Amino acid sequence: MGNGTSATKEALPIDTPFKLPSPLPSLPQGEGFGNGIVNLGSGLQVCQVVSLNKIWATNEGGPDNLGATFFEPSQMPQGFSMLGCYSQPNNRMLHGWVLAGKDDTGEALTKPVDYTLVWSSESLQIKQEGAGYIWLPTPLDGYKALGCVVTTSPEKPSLEKVRCVRSDLTDDCQIDKWIWGQGKESDPNGFNVFSLRPSNRGTQAMGVSVGTFVAQNTTSASISLACLKNIESNLSCMPTLDQVQAIFQAYSPRIYFHPDEEYLPSSTRWYFTNGALLYKKDEESKPVPIESTGSNLPQGGSNDGSYWLDLPVEEAAKERVKRGDLQDCQVYLHIKPMLGATFTDIVAWLFYPFNGPSRAKVELITVPLGKTGQHVGDWEHVTLRISNFNGQLCGLYLSAHSGGTWYDASELEFQDGNKAVIYSSLNGHAMYAKPGLVLQGTGNIGIRNDTAKSNKFIDAGARFSVVSAEYMGSSVVEPPWLNYLRKWGPNITYDLAEEAETVEKLLPGKLKSAFDKFVKSLPKEIFGEEGPTGPKLKRNWTGDEV
């Protein structure tokens, strides 16, 4: 199909606007959370506009080769101005937003002085709905543009269309997710469209996402747009403790464990009171029982190898504690401001007494990997990102091994209202949004991550406690175990060659060399049993997830 509008357009995921299955219940009273407007300082107020008017679309290229659609905000509150357009790939339901700004001083916002045409689809032979034009506003000196303007006309947009922001109210931004391009995302020289996010993100960082996109011909080009900044570090739009508890009750995920899972989570109290031990370097023969709250664990300091935790010594007790206790499982919440306190991250932590051994898939054969992957003490987490403008769930981050993945709310499965469904992988406890097999490797050889629904599951909202929320001050008292900053399990190193050789004996000749190559590509730490550190030493405790 060449330039122009197709006669018959196939239905795409983006043609269906996403809505959460149930409305958010009324929340307890608070200060500024969920009030629709956030004051960023110096007279600049912003609101999050979710009502979007379609401007132009292409139906090929980008993720899954389904194209992308470009929108501008509509139904903005009186006195608010557009800061830029929104775009997303067509391979998921329409679910997005863009900020609009209001200037209470007459100095925070100003019209651009001109526009530059960044790109046009006019001459391209692609599936598109008419021709699209992407314009970059030219700001007045001392101001910065925050987003592009999209039109279906070669004529420049009106200078009244968009506003630029005073430079001191902005922060640096970087490309985030790939929205569209004619080639592949990895093509550094093709024309691509990316969403934007603040370059510096964390609990103390005040950069604010605007919801706009950047369009450029090379991924290495400097970004000509900025994001906003909460210059007064105003946290009044963060939820209160009562509001957090109500929000988590509404959105708490349901976590399914594999039918064959033996190593289930527990509460830390259950782990401590069922025989877990504290060891000290050079005094290994005298391990100490742990108090139910962890009150006798070393506090603060650093992960210097002086202390570690381990399972009970007696074999029967050790095997019983390894398996955890789903009925006693507790979810531990860390509440933190993100993206200049325009969002709240509710980080839900799960503790597993034991992480089971890994299995490999070698073509059609599944082989056990001995003790590979197993360790004492396993912390996993899921992060719910909540809009401070309206209390809506925007997405989930699911931890998997040393990393994880962000999922937009429109990409999730829900049960019982707004409870997202999460799948925990067999033995390894990595979190995924869909059941099935995720292979950690290349081709048809890798470590298996198997997930499935079963009668083993938890509703994270049934048993949870808020263990940390620094911005709330004394409202939340951290339990002693949270400030234990050493290992939650011992260090044991296995013989890499011996483990691999045991597996290779089970394989046909032609697969031995392929498996050997795969094993050598694995990080060395996977062949050691090393108990992890607790939540406070993870990089996401004060930073963003990625």
UniProtKB/TrEMBL annotation:
<protein>
    <recommendedName>
        <fullName>Vacuolar protein sorting-associated protein 62</fullName>
    </recommendedName>
</protein>
<dbReference type="Pfam" id="PF06101">
    <property type="entry name" value="Vps62"/>
</dbReference>
<feature type="region of interest" description="Disordered">
    <location>
        <begin position="1"/>
        <end position="26"/>
    </location>
</feature>
<dbReference type="InterPro" id="IPR009291">
    <property type="entry name" value="Vps62"/>
</dbReference>
